[in-house]
Amino acid sequence: MTITFSFRTTIEFVEQTQSFAGMVGLKSSEYVREAVREKNERVMADRLAMLSRKLSAKHQSFNESLDDSIGDGIA
After folding, report:
1. How many whole angstroms from its chain centre is CA 8?
2. 47 HSE (CA, 13 A, CB side)
3. Which runs of consecutive H residues, i.e. helices, occur in the chain?
4. Contacts from 14-18 at CB under 8 Å and sequence distance 24+?
5. Average pLDDT for consecutive 10-residue bins of the chain (75 residues)?
6. Are the C-beta atoms of residues 28 and 21 closer than 8 Å to each other?
7. What does the radius of gyration of the chain's CA atoms come to, in whole angstroms?
8. What does pTM read for this prediction?
9. d(Cα 73, Cα 45) in Å, to the nearest integer?
């Protein structure tokens, strides 16, 4: 399914986008789609990395608490 997505921008942005799209042989709509797709992928990768670091820190904290309990006489 295809949906029209529009937004307000400046004429300078439109002209620059059309120019760059032409340089790489794309229609401006495809150029913008690719740019947004790439940005979405970067945001998702950054979020995944942040969540991974957060989970890793929790696991490290948990493992350290287990290490601290080794000497308490409970097996």
Report:
1. 24
2. 6
3. 11-23, 28-69
4. none
5. 93 98 97 98 97 89 73 59
6. yes
7. 24
8. 0.69
9. 44
